[in-house]
Task: structure prediction
Amino acid sequence: MKGSTTMAKRKKITTKSKIIQAAWKLFYKQGYENTTVDEIIDASNTSKGSFYHYFESKDALLSTLSYLFDDKYEELAAEMPDTFTAQEKLSFLNHELFRMIDESIDVNLLSRLYSSQLITKAEQHLLDENRFYFRLIIQIISDGYQHHEFRSGLSVDELVKLYVMYERGVIYDWCLNKASYSIMEYSDRILPDFLRMLEAPEKK
Result:
């Protein structure tokens, strides 16, 4: 059986999701500046009224990447086998999310998003712990902690923070290097060593 809880259930694709997914596909394919609102509406099979119900302008879509990522995480959560260990689940999520970044996310827009989060006085949505991403990672690490997969000297909160910092740091470095390498392949090489540092001694 794949998936394990209500968290793993794939939510219905909403109009907002359709608009966001279509927009980011177009941004990657033809560039942000060359993409119009009308093209996004056509590609998402929605209406102008629907678009402006959710977004004031095309610029407002730049802050929706975390929403797009969370949609992907919900999809992946439904696919994960229950038999995976916590580390296997984290590796699976990381591999598939970074594959998505490699294949469909414009590095310039991702860089712009990270830059804006550093200077914004508004909500820092990348740090919003109500996001599906955080709830899923917390659940996985909590389950692994209960099964003694992780070092007892670190709390669940500390483990979650370390893992999230790892992913954020790899993405930031990829942006700094202008996507000159595959973020998926790079993380596939170094994530196992990172996770081994968090293992319980008896697991090593």
